[in-house]
């Protein structure tokens, strides 16, 4: 290998994740008039591109020349498609004028560096580039996210992911169980009842930041309470690994589905008010979140069936059963059914 080319390729390859986030952000902050409002859509494009890329990696499972592990997960990182290429091309549709050509050239160099270093094949980076361009273009054209009006809902969903993931990780580590969660759930219900009539330190602040107005009057902390109820039921009904995976399906799948469908979705589903793009993104996110805890088949089946149920809006009489209850129970039941059949 040529030393100069190798150094350039290493620089392009290993600085890419930071540059892909920081440079478009800097452009948006400098030119707020043209790019400021588009920043959330740009971040959504990158996030959804990562989700789609890793979903396909675990579906196709093309081995790399040297085995690599995804940090914090213990999972193998597969070759096809290239995540460097996909995320490098994702911002292209959000950038205009001469800057778009400059960014496209940079994305091509990042993809080329991965091939030159032997990390990926030409097919890997081509597929990655296509994924990034398709998702970036779709989000850029269909984004309805208004940072002033919609930031509150995005913040709520981020809190939902964080709370669900925290419960799942604590369960996985053996630090909580169904009895502890039942106590937490009971305490949450009591605090909710008290907060209807009184301003409670920290609790009122949290409700102001994360609770919808209609729930604040009827059942403060409704989302957190129902999430805790779904998690408690999962712990009671399923083994630890199944319960952990089910809670992660809820945490990631529900929020990603909601955000993607509400702000970027376009295609209506038959027999549902939910949008197809939201369900697809939620399924991919749920699959990846469950994968560290159960087998690939179990993660895929539980995510697909649970998110299909979420889209269908299961009813008890005229009442829609909340997603926080439906998703983890259906995900867990699906995994248990698969295990019974094998």
How would you characterize this protein structure?
The protein is mainly α. The chain folds into 2 domains: 3-142, no CATH class; 149-341, no CATH class. Helix content is 73%, strand content 1%. It has 15 helices and 2 strands. The chain has a two-stranded antiparallel sheet. A hairpin with a 2-residue loop joins strand 1 (315-316) and strand 2 (319-320). The longest helix has 28 residues, at 3-30.
DSSP strand tally: 2
Low-confidence sequence ranges: none
Largest sheet: 2 strands, antiparallel
Overall morphology:
globular
The percent range for strand residues is: under 5%
Number of helices: 15
Structural class call reads: mainly alpha
Question: What distance lies between the first and last C-alpha atoms, to the nearest angstrom?
Answer: 50 Å
Key words describing this protein structure:
single chain, mainly alpha, 2 domains, 15 helices, 1% strand
Quick overview:
By secondary structure, the protein is mainly α. Helices cover 73% and strands 1% of the residues.
List the topology elements:
Blueprint: H1 3-30, H2 32-35, H3 39-60, H4 83-89, H5 98-116, H6 122-142, H7 147-172, H8 178-195, H9 203-210, H10 213-218, H11 222-237, H12 240-264, H13 276-290, H14 296-312, E1 315-316, E2 319-320, H15 323-341
Antiparallel strand pairs: 1-2
Helix pairs in contact: 1-3, 1-5, 3-6, 3-13, 4-5, 4-6, 5-6, 7-11, 7-12, 8-11, 11-12, 11-15, 12-13, 12-14, 12-15, 13-14, 14-15
